[in-house]
Amino acid sequence: MAIDLRSDTVTKPTPAMRAAMAAAEVGDDERDGDPTMRRLEERVAALLGKEAALFFPSGTMANQAAVWVHTTRGTEVLVDVDAHLVHSEIAGVAALSGAQVLPVHPSNVVMSASDIRAALRPVSRYFPAASLIAVENTHNGAGGKIIPLDDMRAIRAVANESELPIHLDGARLWNASIATGISLRDLSTPADTVMVAFSKGLGAPIGAALAGTRAAIDRAWTARKLFGGAMRQTGMLAAACLYAIDHHMTRLAEDHANARVIANIVDGAGDVTVVAPDTNIVMIDLPPGRRSAPVVAAAKACGVLVSEWSESRIRMVTHLDVSASEAKHAAEVVRDALAVASVSES
User: Fold this and answer.
1) What is the distance in angstroms between the CA of the first residue and the CA of the last residue of the chain?
2) For every one of its 346 residues, what pLDDT tens digit does the chain have, with 9 covering 90 and above?
3) What does pTM read for this prediction?
4) Is position 4 within any domain?
5) What's the rounded Cα separation, in Å, for the pair 68 and 83?
6) With contact defined as beta carbons under 8 Å apart, do 155 and 119 qualify?
7) How far is the C-alpha of 85 from the C-alpha of 169, rounded, in Å?
8) What pLDDT, in 10s, does the model give residues 106-165?
9) In which domain, by residue range, is 166 found?
10) How far is it, in rounded angstroms, from Cα 161 to Cα 320?
């Protein structure tokens, strides 16, 4: 069987998670409220320090609901140029909320408070008004980069200056919390709304949650209905997510350790540069003139699946379905694949 490091979304429910799903108490979530789902939403709200939370089928839908809640048509959302909201949500900001993205180009690895302040347009009848700042933590495109809490507080200060809300795309916020030892509540405090995903590092088969004030979550319920996300007997999904929080969150430290092992083995092979991983994502940058596709193909031929993130960047993501020994073996395969591809391209 292949070692799949394309993403942490490829995890499969464990037997114990499946048992929890099968035993879940269920009800009509939209009509009466599913009891297990209510427990999950209350649990997430408490973990993130928010008044309420709402389950969504996907993180993308939850992000888009947050944009819909905070923005009005003809305004713009300031967000890192390499954010998931920009690259992986099919222009949903424009299609669903009638707003536009104002990509912020970071002066360093990810956008900072000063970058946002510089990108904000002057108030003018000729310019679109800003309506939202969106931040991603951890930052996928930057290699699972953690946004330091002090940086988030500085962004909050800039938002306050312009009376703007902040939405935090925290799909992998669990990873940031485990890696830093900072509570989910503290990491979430600078943001008005926060999205967390269950189907990545936590290993649930589906789902995300959006948390915020009760008023914001009431509006998010309407957005979820509008986007086609109303659900019925969701308790089985909620049970998987509750199990994941209880049993899979602290073990994320193992994924982070495995990512560091991969980085150490691959770094320098074939003159590549590895972005030092903060969490569970390893980005491998090839030297000029080298292409990712031959390396990805060579690794696949040896039973290791990795992502062609771009023409010159490869991504490897550790997760609960990949053991420490498998991560080490996968890194060695990729290291050798880099050498093979280098010869074939020369």
Assistant:
1) 31
2) 899 999 999 999 999 999 999 999 999 999 999 999 999 999 999 999 999 999 999 999 999 999 999 999 999 999 999 999 999 999 999 999 999 999 999 999 999 999 999 999 999 999 999 999 999 999 999 999 999 999 999 999 999 999 999 999 999 999 999 999 999 999 999 999 999 999 999 999 999 999 999 999 999 999 999 999 999 999 999 999 999 999 999 999 999 999 999 999 999 898 999 999 999 999 999 999 999 999 999 999 999 999 999 999 999 999 999 999 999 999 999 999 998 766 555 5
3) 0.96
4) no
5) 18
6) no
7) 8
8) 999 999 999 999 999 999 999 999 999 999 999 999 999 999 999 999 999 999 999 999
9) 13-248
10) 42
Domain check: are 183 and 284 in the same one?
Answer: no
Instruction: List the one residue out of 164, 204, 151 whose CA is nearest residue 44.
Output: 204
Domain co-membership, 182 together with 278: no
Distance between CA atoms of residues 303 and 79, nearest Å = 37
Residue 118 and residue 272: Cα distance in Å, rounded? 33
- In the Cβ-directed half-sphere of 120, how many Cα atoms lie within 13 Å? 19
Structural domain count of the chain: 2
Tell me how many helices (H) and strands (E) the chain has.
14, 13
CA dihedral 311, 288, 255, 296 (to 10 degrees): 50
Within the chain, strands assigned E span 3-4, 52-56, 76-80, 100-104, 130-136, 166-170, 193-197, 208-212, 273-275, 281-285, 304-305, 307-310, 313-317
239, 281: one domain: no
Q: Which of 185, 218, 248 is the last residue of a domain?
A: 248
* Residue type for position 286: L
